[in-house]
Specification:
By secondary structure, the protein is mainly α. The chain has six helices and three strands. The protein has a three-stranded antiparallel beta sheet. A hairpin with a 5-residue loop joins strand 2 (67-70) and strand 3 (76-79). The longest helix is centred in the C-terminal third of the chain and has 21 residues, at 99-119. The radius of gyration is 18 Å and the shape is globular.
C-alpha cells in the first residue's frame, strides 16, 4: 500500500471504475449528495462529455450498485453507495491526494484490455522449420 491507496479503494477502482470519466461521474454525484437526481443532460452540461458515454458510465455505476435510476420523465440517476459509502469517500480523498496513483490504477486496468486487442492483430512469425 505504498501508493497511499487502501485495499477497499483499490478493489472498487479495479472492479467498478474503468475510466477517468466514470470516476468523474461518480464523484460529481457523490459531491451533490444522495438527494440530488441527475439527468444525462445535466451530467453532460457539468462534465462536458458525450451523452452516450455518460449513459454507459451510469449503467456501469448502476451495475456496481453505486447509483440508482429514478423514474422520470426524464429518467434521472441518484448516488446511493449503500455499504460502500465509506469506500467512495476514501476514493474521493485519495483522488485529491494521490491523483496519479488513482489514474494509474484505472488506466492500467484498461491497458490490459487494450493490449489484448492490439495483440490480436500481431502477426505470428513462422518458425524456421515450418517451411
Amino acid at each position: 500500500m505504498s501508493t497511499g491507496i487502501n485495499h477497499d479503494v483499490r478493489r472498487l477502482l479495479e472492479e467498478s471504475i474503468d475510466s477517468i470519466r466514470k470516476l468523474d461521474v461518480l464523484l460529481c454525484m457523490r459531491d451533490a449528495g444522495t438527494d440530488r437526481g441527475w439527468t444525462v443532460a445535466e451530467l453532460n452540461a457539468k462534465l462536458r462529455s458525450s451523452e452516450t458515454a455518460l449513459e454507459a458510465d451510469l449503467s456501469g455505476l448502476l451495475d456496481a450498485q453505486l447509483v440508482e435510476s429514478v423514474a422520470g420523465p426524464p429518467t434521472s440517476w441518484r448516488y446511493v453507495p449503500g455499504q460502500r459509502a465509506r469506500t467512495v469517500d476514501s476514493l474521493a480523498a485519495c483522488y485529491r491526494t494521490h491523483r496519479t496513483a488513482v489514474i494509474r490504477i484505472i488506466t492500467t486496468r484498461g491497458g490490459s484490455s487494450a493490449q489484448q486487442f492490439a495483440d490480436a492483430f500481431r502477426i505470428q512469425r513462422k518458425e524456421s522449420g515450418d517451411g
